[in-house]
Structure formats: structure tokens, C-alpha cells
Specification:
The complex is a heterotrimer of chains A (498), B (478) and C (92). With 498 residues, chain A is an all-alpha fold. Chain A has a domain at 318-498. Chain A is built from 20 helices and two strands. Chain A has a two-stranded antiparallel sheet. In chain A, a hairpin with a 2-residue loop joins β1 and β2. In chain A, α9 runs antiparallel to α14 and α14 (327-358) runs antiparallel to α16. Chain A is globular and about 70 Å long. The two termini of chain A are 32 Å apart. Chain B is an all-alpha fold and 478 residues long. The radius of gyration of chain B is 21 Å and the shape is globular. Chain C is 85% helix and 0% strand. The termini of chain C are far apart. The mean pLDDT of chain C is 87. Classes of the chains: A mainly alpha (498), B mainly alpha (478), C mainly alpha (92). Chains in contact: A-B, B-C. Chains A and B meet through β1, α4, α5 and α6 of A and α14, α16, α17 and α18 of B.
Chain lengths: 498, 478, 92
């Protein structure tokens, strides 16, 4: 074991060890638990910083552990994993602060924060997985670690939502497992390789490769909430707001989308997938999901439900980007992995703030919240406008590159999808903004908690959305700056299309 | 003194001493447990170095004498027994609080362990018969320790069925002696021919062992016997006693009688295994009590192990076969450790709640975080989720099935996985409710920690650090 | 010829015992049936010890002796458990 191979391991351990320790912390030791949480999150961020620097300069980080003959656990960091690792490390820190503010007075905190850390460890493992078996292992671990978080509140609704979540994800996991094993039985043990590692398999395996792609896509599509496998996502909205943020922005949905990206670029290779005719299937599913999710979002009155359907729709931009052959579309899809994350987490933080501070859960109750909570509503507006694709916020950059990529690849129907989807985005977000800013506030809020501190809500709840909203703005404004998500994604695309 | 002889005689000696001094049964029992575990470790260390051991008892060599033998396969199971027996014994030392119960428990417990070790190390058919009988007798007696009418009835039935099984096995042994004039496993293995006598002998022995291993559809006795036994005993019964019978089936089918096995016979075993996976999991899902659930899941697991047989049939000796056999052992070991952890945890839940009806467990599960954690870890291993050893076993099993074109076993495994996930999470979901928060993670270290450690070994230990096991089983890393 | 006769008788006893074991419900009858099955196997073992002019093979004899010990202990345990069960049921 060299120092270079230790880094990916250390990145996983930096949340795993505090997570396990937190289980043992006594319920009333707020300080110790907070310390463990923050120490883990900050250490992880620092380690990821080192990793970014190293990968940019072409260093190789790789750790291997033989599980069985032909079955290796591989952790390695390429540019794509760095993209996902940095996203989750950064957002985990913000979410931890938020979760401490949100939950520190509710029951079963040690259990919650323990699984919270395990969840992030699994996500980082997914990002760093260097081959398909390792990916499958962390992907399943993520399912296990998330289940207690969704069920956390312990209400019959929460337990039901968690059960539905589990039914979907474990079934998806079985499909993924069988697909992965089948693939390995054809190709032998292989690491993820830029450009894929299947193109030199014999013609005779064509049919099998298409079936395997379908199996793997089904497994990944469950977490990525591809229609018709999305049913669990709106159901798990019963979980507390930090968990929703985690599900939608940091971990679960992202893990699915990231897996699809890996599948297309580093297992099949985008050109081979195109030659097999698989990109069309993926593109069709993604487009269907984009439109269906938006349409459903339009009809929701519950704020979190609306955001959930919006996630269904938005995450598929990533899959859409992967389904178009060409570097520009790749950039659009990959950069949305980051952009969707920071925008959606902002929106969920804000939704949590409305619920926690004012008891506002529905869109119809949001009249005038902008006057009562201007900072939160400002953050919400930035996130929402970004989702619609208004320049110069992050979402615009994603859509711009997706559109350019579609033109480059002569896939003009994608432009239609983008236009329709943006219209729908506007249709379900703008009315909320209008209500929040321009409608008069009601005489009393549904369930207002007593004010604490001098801001509109407590600091631990207010700062996280403001910070992530600032990220949304900066990611758009400074898209051309070095180490911005866009620049990094261009690095990945250059390596995929030499 | 040889390590092989020690692994058998130490627990026997302990049992004898604990019988002679009933007042000191517990300290004597614990000391003997520790020594036995050390002796097992010694055997494993020697196998690790030498590959295989053979001890001719009293200096008489086969065909007349009796030999104790150990290879990687038996050493692995010896290790499993040591871990489970040590953990469950420690747990039992708190679980049985009265002197009287302790005095009854320890002699039988050590006798059971001696029988197990002797079974794994036996080198001839007749010794196997004796150990099987000893195992059956002690297991039934231990199971009936609670002395409730249900426990007595269930374990009496278990005893009688076990006797039927061993006599059927003995009849097979007699045929072997008629055909080959020796009972030594190695000598018989070398002389095996595809004739009717050997086939009948194998059929009889397998039938007898299938009864003892509760192989579907001969599993009816298992659930009541295991569910009504005291928790540490159920742990050993499910994790070890049933596995010991399966160990012997595997020995006969994969080793001694391997040239005799036809694709049809192996497929039949696979089919029974598939039935066990589906039916056992289904019954576990429908079970109303936690321990009944755990017992049916044992039925399903034996079935999962049988799925290896059709895939190993006809597989020529070599790396592929060694790997698949090792995967079988890995899966059996994971199941054993996980199942013992599950039963020990179930016992704690039962004691805390006063019952083990799953529907009413809510508050208890939330009050005992460490125990619920154990249930979760053990459950993950039983489902075959990563990073447990069962996941790796399942991976290699599915890979072998796909490579040999027998995809139907994959369907069975997929269904079994989903069903087992359903029954495990049916229990775990009870831990999420609005009862007050527990103050601390561990409430009674001496019972909770052994269970937790066993479950942890099944998940993280055998999953991430199984390399020594592969080496022990002689599989070269590739 | 004689060994075959003994062996055949052994198989017959085993089958008879098996039938009884499966059909009879009462514990005592089941145990008697079990012992008859056992005797069947022992019969067979003794029959195959015959080696014509040579002295008979001692191994099967040893097996039978061990087998008898095992069968007696098993019967004893089953009887003890049956008796305890009977007592427990009387208490109820």
C-alpha cells in the first residue's frame, strides 16, 4: 500500500469511521456528535481537495483488494469520479450543518447521523469504484444505508415510504447484479476504461450485450428515477428535509445517474453503445422521463412533491446528455450532474425552512413567504430560475451545452424536448415565485415556530441554502474559470473523445 | 499430542468434568470452550501450513484402523464451529442464570461441540455414523432444555427423525462395506465404480442426511424444534448441526462419490434446493414469530447451498472447480455466522419483550439498538447483500450458472434474494416507530456483543477479508 | 447361501421397522419399530462378516457392537423425553 493508494480509502474512511462512532454516542451528547460530524465532513473535504489537485496533475490513485478470484474491490480516482466525489463531499458538509440545525432536537439523533455518514461513505464509494463489481457493492450499500433515513420519523407513512423505496431499489439491485455478473462472464474481470472495454468482443455476443445493457439500465434507472421506475421517489418525500436533500442531490438519485454515465462511457464506450443502437433507447427513456416528470410536477400542490417530480425530470438531463454522441452533449449532461445537485439541494433546504419555520408545506400556502423569509426565498428563487435555465445561473450552462451538442449530433428532436421542458419548468416554478414575492402574506402561518436569533430562521438552517444558492450563481457566472464544474467536465470530455 | 485428537478430546473431557462437578459447570464449560477453540485454531494453522492432516488413531492404519483427517474444507467448518460455539457459549453464560440450568447446559453443549468436531474430522464412514448419532442425541436434548411441552414435543420429533436419518445412513454404509471391504473415505473414494450398489449406498446415505439437514421437502421438523429451543441452542442448531449434515452431503457428492454423480441426480438436488429456497423464504415471510422466521430461513439457506451441486457436477478438477467449492464454503460459513447472530439477537428481543411476535415488537426493537443492528447485519448477510460473504458466494454461483448455461438457477436466486429481503426488512421496519429514544447503544455487553460480533464477522469479516479462507481452501489467487 | 438368507432377513426387518416407524403414532411403538430397523441393519452387517473358510471379518462385529450402544442410548433418551413430556402434560 503506497500513500497514493491510501487516499481513496481515506476518503471513504473519513465518513465511515465517524459514522460508526456516532452510533455509540449517547443521545444527549450534542457536542460530541456535532464534533464527529463536522470533523468527518471537513476531513473528507480536505482529502478531496488533495485528490482534485492530484488527478488534475495526472497522478494515479488506486487501491485494490481481492475479494475472491476474479472479483476485486477497486477504488480509483479518474476525472469523472473526482467530479462526483467533490460534489458529494461539498454538499455533505453543507447538509450536515443543515441537518444538525434541523434535527438536533428530534429523537434518535445518533441513529440518524450514524446512517447519514454511512450513506455518504457509500456514495463516495460509488464515485471511486474502479470496476463494475465495486460499483455494485457500494450501490447496494447505499440502498441499505438510506433505508433507515427514509424510515427515520417512524410514522406509518415514513415506514411505508421506506418500504416502497426498498422494494424498488432492491429489485433494481438484483437486475444490476445479474447484469454485472453476466457482463463479467463475457468480458472477464475488467476495470472501468475510458472509451469502454467491450468493443472487441465478438459479434456473437451482440444480443447478450444489448440484454445486459437493459438489465444494468433497469438497475441504475431505479435510483436515477427513470420513468417507469421512478415510483419510489415521490413516496419517500415523507423523510425529513435533509434526507430529501441527500436523496435528490447528493446521493441516491445521483448515484443512479452517475452509474448510467459510467455504463455508457466507461463500460460500453459511447461509440460502441451507439453502434449497438443503445443510445436511442436511453435517449427515448430520458426524454420521456423529462417530460413526464415535469407534467406531474405541474399538478402537485405539496411543495416537496413538486420538487420530487422536478427531480425525476431534471436528473434525466444527465442521461439525455449521455445518449447523444458527441463531446458537447457529454459536457452538457455531465455538468448537469453537478448543477442539478446544487440547485436541487438549495430548493430542498428552502422547502425544509418553510416547513420548519412556518409550517408551510404546500404551494397554496406560500403566499407572501418572501416577505416573512426574504433570504430563504431569495435562495429558492435562484434555484428555481436556474432549473428553468435562466442565464447566468448554473442550469443555463447545462441546457446550453445540451442544445449545442444536439445540434452537433444532428439530433434536432432534443431541442424540442429542451424547449418543452423549460416551458414546463417555468410553468411549475414561476407561479411559486409569484406567490412568494407578490401575494400578500396571510394573517397567520400554519404553524410558526418561535423566532430564534436575529434572522428569519435559525442560522444553521439559513446559511446552507444561501451558500448553495451562491454556488448556483457562481457555477454559472464563473463557468469558464479554472476548476469550475464546466472546466472539469471539459477535461473529462477531452479524455473520452481523444 | 496431535491437534486433531485435541479438538475432539478437549470438549469431551470438559463435558465429563462439567458432569462430575455440576456446581462448577459454568467455569469449567467456559474454560473447556476456550481450550477447544484454541485446539481448532491449531488444527487450522496446521492445515494452513501443510494443506492436509491425517492421524491414524492408535497407530492402526486403514483399512482396519480409524483415521482423523483434516483438509481445508473440514478446517473451515471446524473454524465455523469454534466461532459460533464460543460466541453462543459466552452468550449462554449470561442467558442461563440459574446454577441448575447451567449444570444441565454445559455438559450437553460440550458434547455437541465434540460431536461436531469429530464429524468434521472423521475419515471413515462409520465414525461419521457415530458422530451423527451423538450430534442428533445432544442436539435434541439441548433443544428440549426449556422443558416446555412444545419444546419437548418438537425435539422428541426431531430426535426420532434424526434416528431415522442415521439408520438410513447406516444402511448405506453397510452397502459400502459390502462392495469395498473398507470404510475409509479416501480408500472408498479411490475404488468407487458406477454400479448399482454404490449408487444405492449414495442414495440411502443422502436420504438419511437430507432428513438431518432439513432439505426440502424433508424440512417439516426443523421450524418447531429450532424455534422452541433456548436462543443459544437454536443458534448452534441452525448454524452448525444442520450445516454438519449438509457438510457431509457435500463431502459425499463433491468428493467421495463425485465420479458417480449424473447430471440428473445433481439437477434433482438443485431442484430440491430451489424448492427449499422458495418455500423456506415464503414460509419465513409468513411467519408470525421471529424465531420461526429464523428457522425457515435456515431451510432456505440449505437450499441455496444445494444449488451449487448441479453446477459442480461434471466440472473437471481445476481452478474453476476449486473456486466454486470455495464459494460454497464461503456461503455456508457466512450463513452459519449470520444465522447464529440472528438467533442470539432474537433471543434478546424475546427476553426483553416477553414474546417474539413480530407484529408487536416495535418498542423493543427500538429500545435495543445494538440488537437491532445485529438483526440488520445478520439479515444483510442472509439476503446476500454486500459486503457479506454470501454476496461473494452468490456472485460466483450466478457466474457459474451463466457460464454453464443453467440460467434457471439465477432466476431462483433472484427470487430468493427478494423474498429474503422482504422477510428481513419486515422485522427491521418494526424498529422505526415513535417510541422514546434509547439512551445508549449497548445495554448488556455480555449477551449483545457476541451476537453483534458474529453478525459482523458474517458481513464485514467474510466479505472483505476472505482472502485467508481462499488460501486455506487451496484456491490460488488469480 | 446362508449369508444371503441373513442379509435378506436383515433387509426385511429394516423395511418392516421403517413401515412401523412411519405408520405408528405412539412413541413406544415408534421406538420399538426403530429398534427393529436397527436390528435389520445389524443383521446385514453380521451376514457380510462371513468369509467362508477364514475366520469371520471382525470389523462388522465391532460396528454392530457400537451400533447397539448407540441405539440403546438413543432409545433411553427418547424414553426419558417422552416421560418428561407426559409429566408436563399432566401438570397442565
Amino acid at each position: 500500500m503506497t500513500l497514493a493508494s491510501l487516499l481513496p480509502v481515506a476518503i471513504i474512511l473519513s465518513s465511515l469511521i465517524p459514522g460508526l462512532a456516532i452510533f455509540l454516542v449517547r443521545e444527549e451528547s450534542h457536542l460530541l456528535r456535532g464534533l464527529l460530524n463536522m470533523a468527518g465532513a471537513l476531513t473528507k473535504l480536505a482529502l478531496v481537495g488533495v485528490l482534485i489537485w492530484g488527478v488534475y496533475h495526472g497522478h494515479v490513485y488506486e487501491a485494490r483488494l481481492a475479494l475472491a478470484p476474479g472479483l476485486e474491490l477497486v477504488l480509483s480516482a479518474d476525472a469523472l469520479s473526482v467530479l462526483f466525489v467533490s460534489l458529494s463531499a461539498l454538499l455533505w458538509l453543507v447538509t450536515t450543518v443543515y441537518a444538525i440545525g434541523y434535527l438536533e432536537h428530534s429523537p434518535n439523533r445518533s441513529r440518524f447521523f450514524g446512517f447519514f455518514s454511512l450513506c455518504v461513505s457509500a456514495t463516495v464509494g460509488i464515485a471511486l469504484a474502479g470496476n463494475l463489481p465495486s460499483f455494485v457493492i457500494f450501490y447496494e450499500l447505499l440502498t441499505l444505508a438510506t433505508y433507515p433515513l427514509v424510515a427515520h420519523r417512524g410514522t406509518p407513512d415514513a415506514v411505508r415510504g421506506a418500504r416502497i423505496y426498498l422494494a424498488y431499489t432492491l429489485s433494481g439491485g438484483v437486475a444490476l447484479l445479474i447484469g454485472a455478473i453476466w457482463l463479467q462472464s463475457l468480458s472477464g474481470p475488467q476495470d472501468f476504461t475510458q472509451g469502454g472495454y467491450l468493443s472487441n468482443l465478438s459479434e456473437a455476443h451482440r444480443g447478450a450485450l444489448i440484454a445486459i445493457f437493459a438489465l444494468l439500465l433497469a438497475g441504475l434507472g431505479v435510483k436515477a428515477a427513470l420513468v417507469p421506475l421512478h415510483g419510489w421517489l415521490p413516496q419517500s418525500m415523507v423523510a425529513p428535509a435533509p434526507v430529501s436533500a441527500l436523496l435528490h442531490a447528493v446521493a441516491v438519485v445521483k448515484a443512479g445517474a452517475f452509474g448510467i454515465v459510467r455504463l455508457v462511457y466507461d463500460v460500453y464506450g459511447v461509440e460502441f453503445a451507439h453502434a449497438l443502437g443503445l443510445l436511442g433507447l436511453l435517449g427515448a427513456l430520458a426524454s420521456l422521463t423529462i417530460l413526464y416528470g415535469s407534467l406531474r410536477a405541474l399538478a402537485q400542490d405539496g411543495l416537496k412533491k413538486r420538487l420530487a417530480y422536478s427531480t425525476v425530470s431534471q436528473v434525466s438531463y444527465i442521461a439525455l446528455g449521455a445518449s447523444i454522441l458527441g463531446p458537447v452533449a457529454t459536457i452538457g449532461g455531465l455538468v448537469h450532474l453537478v448543477h442539478q445537485g446544487i440547485m436541487k439541494i438549495t430548493l430542498f433546504f428552502c422547502a425544509g425552512n418553510y416547513a420548519e419555520t412556518l409550517g408551510v408545506h404546500r404551494v397554496s400556502e406560500m403566499d407572501g413567504v418572501g416577505q416573512r423569509m426574504p433570504l430563504t426565498t431569495l435562495a429558492f428563487s435562484l434555484g428555481a430560475l436556474g432549473m428553468i435555465g435562466i442565464p447566468p445561473i448554473a442550469g443555463f450552462v447545462s441546457k446550453w451545452y445540451l442544445g449545442l451538442g444536439a445540434i452537433e449530433a444532428q439530433a434536432h428532436w432534443v431541442l424540442l424536448i429542451l424547449a418543452l421542458s423549460s416551458l414546463l419548468n417555468a410553468a411549475y416554478f414561476l407561479p411559486i415565485l409569484y406567490r412568494a414575492w407578490f401575494r400578500p402574506a396571510p394573517a397567520a402561518w400554519p404553524e410558526e415556530s418561535p423566532r430564534r436569533g436575529r434572522f428569519e430562521t435559525q442560522g444553521a438552517l439559513l446559511w446552507p441554502p444561501l451558500i448553495t444558492a451562491a454556488f448556483c450563481l457562481l457555477a454559472g457566472l464563473l463557468a469558464a474559470a479554472p476548476f469550475s464544474p464546466l472546466e472539469w467536465v471539459e477535461l473529462i470530455a477531452r479524455r473520452e473523445y481523444p | 499430542m496431535s491437534s486433531l485428537a485435541l479438538a475432539v478430546t478437549l470438549p469431551l473431557l470438559g463435558a465429563l468434568l462439567a458432569t462430575l462437578w455440576p456446581g462448577r459447570a459454568q467455569p469449567l464449560g467456559l474454560a473447556a470452550s476456550l481450550l477447544t477453540a484454541l485446539a481448532s485454531a491449531w488444527v487450522i494453522a496446521e492445515v494452513w501450513q501443510a494443506g492436509a492432516l491425517r492421524l491414524e488413531l492408535g497407530g492402526w492404519s486403514a483399512p482396519l484402523g480409524i483415521a482423523l483427517v483434516a483438509d481445508g474444507f473440514s478446517a473451515a467448518f471446524l473454524g465455523l464451529s469454534a466461532l459460533v460455539a464460543l460466541g453462543s457459549g459466552l452468550y449462554a453464560s449470561t442467558y442461563f442464570s440459574t446454577r441448575e440450568m447451567q449444570a444441565r447446559f454445559w455438559p450437553l453443549w460440550l458434547l455437541l461441540w465434540a460431536a461436531l468436531n469429530a464429524l468434521f474430522l472423521a475419515g471413515d464412514f462409520f465414525n461419521l455414523y457415530v458422530t451423527l448419532e451423538l450430534l442428533g442425541l445432544t442436539a435434541a436434548a439441548l433443544g428440549a432444555l426449556g422443558a416446555t411441552p412444545e419444546a419437548l414435543r418438537a425435539n422428541l420429533r426431531y430426535l426420532l427423525i434424526g434416528l431415522l436419518g442415521s439408520l438410513t445412513y447406516l444402511l448405506g454404509v453397510t452397502l459400502i462395506y459390502i462392495a469395498h471391504g473398507t470404510l475409509d473415505l479416501a480408500l472408498v473414494g479411490a475404488a468407487i465404480t458406477a454400479g448399482p450398489v454404490d449408487a444405492t449406498a449414495l442414495a440411502l446415505m443422502t436420504l438419511g442426511l437430507a432428513l438431518k439437514a432439513a432439505l426440502f421437502p424433508l424440512h417439516g421438523w426443523l421450524a418447531p424444534a429450532h424455534a422452541n429451543a433456548p436462543a443459544p441452542v437454536s443458534a448452534a442448531l441452525s448454524a452448525l448441526v444442520v450445516k454438519a449434515a449438509f457438510y457431509l452431503i457435500a463431502r459425499l457428492w463433491l468428493d467421495v462419490f463425485a465420479p458417480l454423480i449424473t447430471p440428473w441426480a445433481a439437477s434433482l438436488m438443485g431442484l430440491l434446493g430451489a424448492g427449499a429456497v422458495l418455500w423456506g423464504s415464503w414460509r419465513a415471510l409468513r411467519a408470525e414469530q421471529l424465531k420461526v422466521l429464523a428457522a425457515y430461513s435456515t431451510v432456505a439457506q440449505i437450499g441455496a447451498l444445494c444449488l451449487f451441486l448441479p453446477l459442480l457436477q461434471g466440472l473437471p478438477a481445476g481452478a474453476a472447480r476449486e473456486q466454486l467449492v470455495a464459494a460454497l464454503v464461503l456461503m455456508a460459513l457466512t450463513h452459519g455466522l449470520a444465522k447464529s447472530g440472528l438467533f442470539l439477537a432474537a433471543g434478546l428481543v424475546q427476553r426483553a419483550a416477553g414474546h417474539d411476535r413480530i407484529a408487536e415488537l416495535g418498542g423493543t426493537a427500538q429500545r435495543l439498538p445494538a440488537t437491532t443492528f445485529t438483526l440488520g447485519l445478520a439479515g444483510a448477510a442472509l439476503i446476500g447483500l454486500p459486503p457479506s460473504g454470501a454476496f461473494i458466494g452468490k456472485w460466483l454461483l450466478i457466474e457459474a450458472a451463466l457460464e454453464r448455461g443453467q440460467w434457471w438457477w439465477v432466476v431462483v436466486l433472484a427470487l430468493g434474494t427478494l423474498l429474503s429481503a422482504a422477510y428481513v426488512f419486515r422485522v427491521l421496519s418494526r424498529a422505526f416507530n415513535q417510541d422514546p429514544t434509547p439512551g445508549r447503544f449497548v445495554s448488556e455487553a455480555r449477551t449483545e456483543l457476541p451476537a453483534l460480533l458474529l453478525a459482523l464477522l458474517a458481513t464485514a469479516g467474510l466479505g472483505l477479508a476472505s482472502a485467508p479462507l481462499w488460501r486455506l481452501l487451496g484456491v490460488a489467487p488469480s | 447361501m446362508t449369508p444371503l438368507l441373513y442379509a435378506g432377513a436383515g433387509i426385511a426387518l429394516f423395511s418392516l421397522g421403517l413401515w412401523g416407524f412411519l405408520v405408528q403414532a405412539a412413541l413406544l411403538r415408534k421406538l420399538i419399530a426403530f429398534n427393529i430397523m436397527g436390528s435389520g441393519v445389524f443383521h446385514l452387517l453380521i451376514a457380510i462378516a462371513e468369509r467362508g473358510e477364514q475366520p469371520p471379518d471382525p470389523v462388522p462385529h465391532a460396528l454392530v457392537l457400537t451400533g447397539i450402544v448407540v441405539a440403546v442410548s438413543a432409545t433411553a433418551l427418547a424414553l426419558a423425553m417422552g416421560r418428561q413430556l407426559g409429566e408436563e402434560q399432566e401438570h397442565e
